[in-house]
Amino acid sequence: MKLLRKLLKGVSLTAAMFVFQACYGTEPDYCVSEMTFRVVSDKDQTPLPDIKVMAQRQSGSDDCVYSWSLGDYTDSNGVARVQVDLWECIEADYKFRFSDEQSQYELLDTVIHVGEPDTVDIVLHRI
To answer: In whole angstroms, what is the distance from residue 118 CA to residue 36 CA?
Structure first.
């Protein structure tokens, strides 16, 4: 009798796990893509350090608005590396925002299809 009870418990637990898996599925696959930006000044093409780079995933429709996430700050060579998550490893459009703390340069928003170029040159215009 004890053996039958243990067997039924095991079968019941397995059935419950199967139903849970069928209803809720597994975790989606996430891939990470890295974008590299080289940010320079419009006047003399000098690299701009300490430029804040933020990323925002773009929705295919207007029903979903994603929040901004901090990517990185440019280094002394004007280079920033930003990692973005790609849901189920599908390439996506991201809006990237470039700004400086002193507001010496115009804020720049640009949409880039992540998965195409790995390095993008960005030119900021001085105010």
So the answer is: 6
Let me know if 69 is exposed, middle or buried by CB neighbors in 10 A (0-12, 13-18, 19+).
middle
Is 7 inside a domain boundary?
A: no
pTM: 0.69
Closest CA to 124 of 26, 37, 4: 37
CA distance 127 to 95: 22
Report whether 75 contacts 62 (CB < 8 A): no
Question: pLDDT tens, 97-118?
Answer: 999 998 899 999 998 887 666 7
Residue 18 lies in a domain: no
Supply the range of the domain harboring residue 76: 30-124
